[in-house]
């Protein structure tokens, strides 16, 4: 046995040629040292026969003796990123036993790490050597986790032409009027309650490429965020129309929705086959669900995105908005001369001759464009002059009462001026806009047509 007690007495037999013989005891052994895990003790036997002859014999007794616990050694295992906890094999050794390996298929218990970005797997190993000595050891494997959290509704907001859903609807967001063909870049704001960007986070941009052939809407999400949903509206009216025939801002009702799985940081929605001869300014609503990257063990943020990252969804169909009144392929709202299709400009002042007050030299004295037509809550007044002047814009109702007045005393010659005027507190009706410079004035009609939620 191992670690067994030494016998107090040891009995053996003796024999003799003249005597009967018999058994004999040893009164106790004497320590004789050890050899590693083996201890030795000597037991001496003495006997005298009937004739007085004596004999002595010494017996060496051994036993295994070990009071040292075995040692368990944990393997070196790198942190796991997003995968399952592995099976784990530890080794054990002992001073008196052969040792070997121990394997656990899964952790004995799992706890969340203090950083909230990892799980800790505890593998509890136990072994007993040949002498009954026991050892326990806990080995640890850390499983790091890519974590997406704090998802928020996000909407794109243009620097010019953005109109908050409120008060038309109870939810926040913006519809953006883009009057002319070209490229627009809008900030994408998440969590901007009441359309107040101070309450939100800038999570990316949305670019809109508006051409004769298509409207291409591209989401570009900032580092530290991903996008789990995207819904797009492009149309002639500020809002899409629900199945019940009423305007809506519910993203699920938008007609041009991104089709992808997982999370992305870049995605494009393209609407093709526009009616190039007949469309004008457009409204764009770009909705997204943006989420923070709370924890990341992957090598890059791109690895946290699905295979659809950077791809696109395409829609086809004719797209018809404001007519091009003079047929010169310039949207009416952006046409310097919306009443004439001959764009010859003899004096090179940017105004076609048919609309130029001075076609043989110098810029037209007074001119401006009002859009959208009709407008809802805001109207944009755009103008261009090649001379220094103060610009006064006045809006009157049909009774001649002055409703709004704006004066631009810092107009720079040769630049496009733009004033966005809030008309949300006025009723649907006809108004007159008078723009005055130091070289004259011009009056145009505008019409308000508010959409009811």
Characteristics:
453 residues; mainly beta; eleven-stranded mixed sheet; four-stranded mixed sheet; rod-shaped
What can you tell me about this protein's structure?
- There is one protein chain.
- By secondary structure, the chain is mainly beta.
- It has four domains: 10-64, no CATH class; 71-145; 150-316, no CATH class; 365-447, Immunoglobulin-like (Sandwich), CATH 2.60.40.10.
- It is 0% helix and 47% strand.
- It is built from no helices and 30 strands.
- Strands 13, 14, 15, 16, 17, 18, 19, 20, 21, 22 and 23 form an eleven-stranded mixed sheet that branches. It has a four-stranded mixed sheet with strand order 7-12-11-10, with no helix packed on it. A four-stranded antiparallel sheet has the order 27-26-29-30, with no helix packed on it.
- A hairpin with a 5-residue loop joins strand 4 (38-48) and strand 5.
- The protein is rod-shaped and about 160 Å long.
- The model has no long low-confidence stretch (mean pLDDT 86).
């Amino acid at each position: 046995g191992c670690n067994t007690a030494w016998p107090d007495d040891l009995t053996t037999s003796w024999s003799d040629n003249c005597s009967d013989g018999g058994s004999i005891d040893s009164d106790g052994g004497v320590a004789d040292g050890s050899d590693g895990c083996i201890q030795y003790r000597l037991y001496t036997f003495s006997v005298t026969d009937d004739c007085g002859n004596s004999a002595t014999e010494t017996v060496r007794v051994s036993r295994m003796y070990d009071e040292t616990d075995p040692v368990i050694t944990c393997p070196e295992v790198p942190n796991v990123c997003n995968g399952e906890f592995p099976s784990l094999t530890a080794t054990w050794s002992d001073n008196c036993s052969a040792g070997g390996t121990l394997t656990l298929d899964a952790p004995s218990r799992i706890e969340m790490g203090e950083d909230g970005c990892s799980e800790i797997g505890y593998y509890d190993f136990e072994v007993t050597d040949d002498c009954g000595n026991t050892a326990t050891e806990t080995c640890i494997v850390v499983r790091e986790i890519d974590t997406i959290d704090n998802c928020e509704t996000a909407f794109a907001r243009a620097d010019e032409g953005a109109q908050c859903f409120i008060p038309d609807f109870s939810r926040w967001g913006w519809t953006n009027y883009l009057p002319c063909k070209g490229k627009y870049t809008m900030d994408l704001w998440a969590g901007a309650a009441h359309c107040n960007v101070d309450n939100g986070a800038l999570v990316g941009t949305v670019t809109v490429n508006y051409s004769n052939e298509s409207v291409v809407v591209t989401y570009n999400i900032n580092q530290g965020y991903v996008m789990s949903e995207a819904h797009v509206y492009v149309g002639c009216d500020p809002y899409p129309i629900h199945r019940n025939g009423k305007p809506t801002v519910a993203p699920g009702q938008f007609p041009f929705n991104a089709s992808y799985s997982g999370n992305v940081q870049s995605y494009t929605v393209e609407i093709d086959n526009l009616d190039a001869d007949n469309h004008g300014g457009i409204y764009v609503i770009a909705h997204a669900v943006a989420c923070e990257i709370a924890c990341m063990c992957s090598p890059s943020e791109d690895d946290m995105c699905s295979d659809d990252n950077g791809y696109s969804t395409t829609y086809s169909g004719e797209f018809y908005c404001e007519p091009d009144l003079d047929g010169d392929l310039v949207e009416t709202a952006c046409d310097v001369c919306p009443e004439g299709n001959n764009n010859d400009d003899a004096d090179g002042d940017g105004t076609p001759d048919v609309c130029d007050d001075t076609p043989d030299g110098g810029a037209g004295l007074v001119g401006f464009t009002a859009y959208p037509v009709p407008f809802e809550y805001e109207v944009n007044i755009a103008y261009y002059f090649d001379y220094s002047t103060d610009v006064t814009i006045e809006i009157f109702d049909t009774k001649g009462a002055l409703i709004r007045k704006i004066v631009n005393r810092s107009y720079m010659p040769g630049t496009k001026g733009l004033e966005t005027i809030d008309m949300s507190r006025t009723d649907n009706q006809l108004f007159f806009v008078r723009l005055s410079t130091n070289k004259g004035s011009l009056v145009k009609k505008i019409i308000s047509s508010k959409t009811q939620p």
